[in-house]
Amino acid sequence: MTAYEMAKIFYISIGFWLTLGVECFGGSNHVLTIKPGGSVTIPCHYDEKNPPQKKYWYSDYDPSTYTNTTEENLSVIDHPDQSLFTVTMRNLQSKHTGRYYCLVETDGQSSATFDLYIQVQSAPGVSVKSSSVSGHEGDNVSVQCFYTSGYKDKLKQWCRIKDQRCYTEKRTDTSLNPSVQISDDGRSSFTVLMTGLRLSDSGWYFCSAGEAMNPVHLTVIEAEPVSVTTDTGTEKDK
């Protein structure tokens, strides 16, 4: 795929999201920084109503890698039940620094659903203690996102990838359940608190400071029925 074709695909994709009136946080200014030798998993969503015939991971210097491919340091796995495929890159080194794209092909037409710049460096701009968190339905969960001094004054956000909804620091969104609160310590980290978890909140998110971001996967576990004892001594699920 030529650079011209890649640029054409990218701008068609951006135009599509702008036509829908969606804030495209997956634009070309986002950077994912990883320590040398580190690994990362990146989710690539696609249209669940019209699934693409082909899904693949593309970079400017490597050939395309199609879904359900597993190599020593790269796995591209399709999850049709979630309408996404994941890309896991392992043992990242400086040579892997560059721009990457999630591409899909439907009816012979290719489009970029997400793109980002991966920077391999000793001090990641934004990082998390764990890239996977979980909580029970109805409970709360918190995620701590760390940033370096260069991002101290940048806007802090927590974004859900599936619907491209972003929550911003110093603002509590109570129009939805769960509410999301972001508190910044002003030094080196900010904390995201999600309350009243629902099963539908499971999925992929990004914590970001300015253009730097890091992916986090949230799993919401179904609450177990509460058993109560009736006057007759029998138990019923509540």
Report the oligomer: single chain
Order of helices and strands: HEEEEEEEEEEEEEEEEEEEE
Taking the alpha carbons of the first and last residues, their distance comes to 58 Å
* SS field, number of helical segments: 1
Percent of sequence in beta strands? over 45%
Q: Over the alpha carbons, how many angstroms does the gyration radius reach?
A: 20 Å
What labels would you give this structure?
mainly beta; single chain; 238 residues; four-stranded antiparallel sheet
Describe the structure.
The structure is a single chain. The protein has 238 residues and is mainly beta. 7% of the residues lie in helices and 47% in strands. The chain has 1 helix and 20 strands. Strands 1, 3, 4, 8, 9, 11, 13, 14, 17 and 18 form a 10-stranded mixed beta sheet that branches. The chain has a 4-stranded antiparallel beta sheet with strand order 2-7-6-5, with no helix packed on it. A hairpin with a 2-residue loop joins strand 17 and strand 18. The longest helix is centred in the N-terminal third of the chain and has 17 residues, at 3-19. The radius of gyration is 20 Å and the shape is globular. The termini are far apart. Mean pLDDT is 83; it is low at 6-24 and 172-178.
